[in-house]
Write a structure and sequence with these properties.
By secondary structure, the chain is an alpha/beta fold. It is built from nine helices and eleven strands. The strands form two sheets. The chain has a six-stranded antiparallel beta sheet with strand order 4-3-6-1-2-5, covered by helices on one side. The protein has a five-stranded parallel beta sheet with strand order 9-8-7-10-11, sandwiched between helices. Strand 10, helix 9 and strand 11 form a beta-alpha-beta unit. The structure holds adenosine-2'-5'-diphosphate (A2P).
Length: about 300
């Protein structure tokens, strides 16, 4: 995966600069006065015109698309210089050109210092957004709303020693952001990222993210020897053919990794997946004596939904 150029991390919630960034086409200030760049591309021209009526959004450009399976793909877009977010947050995205734009919340998979935005998406046949989204190609436009948010952030966790990131499917996206953020490595001695998917092929994105940490310009030294990826697969033969919830309940997760079970004194847990997975993992954390945290009240575990189109 290509490594992006570095950018200085900005404070979360920082006010947007008055001047329009080089890629955003829709700030309030310039609304109605800007001239659409003549790219010669009809679709982008139409999207640019549409941007004038959408001051709550940035219009970004798709720069890269990679399909992993017939259900999963990732894509990168330009990033507006004024878009600040904390690693692990999500943002609403949509596609220009539809009769009534459909927006869906997507976790930002790139870290907050990255020059680009990255997203990891499911393809839902007939899905209101992903039916079209899965067909995007470099050069296409993407609406990105201006207010990222979320609870899957380091700020919502009390200090601890080991950070567990529990994901199913595209729920791994916010963790792809967090493992590439130096702050994660400053706050925790050790990180265990777990992902459960239907098939082994669906694990490739997480495998590449974790393998890529060794060459990461910011975290390679920090993460060395301190990160582990634990994967399980449920719908084809695999050395760990089970949901992560089963691996936790049976104690297999901890015996495989040589760690103690979750403990409020040392362990912090972040959870991202389907509603059922969130419910079940949350129950396991509560049973282990951990308290749920939030931005307002940091504690021992946090929960976020993974979003599908
Ligand atoms: P399963 O195959 O047993 O349903 P999906 O692709 O449907 O989003 O699911 C991703 C993975 O999450 C699948 O491996 C699925 O297992 C697993 N999963 C579904 N529900 C739960 C749950 N409640 N707890 C843990 N894992 C779950």
């Amino acid at each position: 995966m290509p490594r992006p150029a570095l950018r200085a991390p900005g404070p979360a919630g920082a006010p947007e600069p008055a001047a329009r960034c080089e890629s955003c086409l829709c700030t309030d200030k310039l609304r109605g006065t800007m001239v659409a760049p003549d790219t010669g591309d009809e679709t982008m021209r139409a999207a640019t015109a549409e941007a004038m009526d959408r001051p709550d959004c940035h219009l970004e450009t798709v720069t890269e698309v990679e399909h992993y399976t017939d259900r999963l793909f990732r894509f990168r877009t330009t990033r507006p210089a004024s878009l600040r977010f904390r690693s692990g947050e999500f943002v609403m995205i949509g596609l220009p050109g539809g009769e009534k734009p459909v927006f869906r919340a997507y976790s930002i998979a790139s870290p907050n210092w990255d020059d680009a935005l990255e997203f990891f998406s499911i393809k839902v046949p007939g899905g209101p957004l992903t039916e079209r989204l899965q067909k995007i190609v470099p050069g296409d436009g993407l609406w990105v709303k201006k207010k990222p948010t979320g609870t899957l952030v380091l700020d919502a966790l009390a200090p601890g020693r080991r950070l567990w990131m529990l994901a199913t499917g595209t729920g791994v996206a916010p963790f792809a952001s967090l493992v590439r953020d130096p702050e994660t490595w400053e706050k925790f001695e050790e990180v265990v990222l777990t992902q459960t998917c239907r098939t082994a092929a669906e694990l490739r994105y997480a495998e590449e993210i974790v393998a890529g940490l060794a060459e990461d310009p910011l975290v390679s030294e920090l993460a060395a020897g301190r990160v582990r990826l634990y994967t399980t697969v449920t719908r084809e033969p695999h050395p760990r053919p089970m949901r992560i919830t089963t691996a936790i309940e049976s104690g297999r997760l901890f015996s495989d990794l040589g760690t103690a079970p979750f403990s409020a004194g040392t362990d912090r847990v972040m959870i991202c997946g389907s509603m059922e997975m969130l419910r079940d993992c949350r129950a396991l954390c509560l049973a282990a004596g951990l308290t749920e945290g939030s931005n307002a009240r940091p504690a021992e575990f946090v929960v976020e939904r993974a979003f599908a189109g």
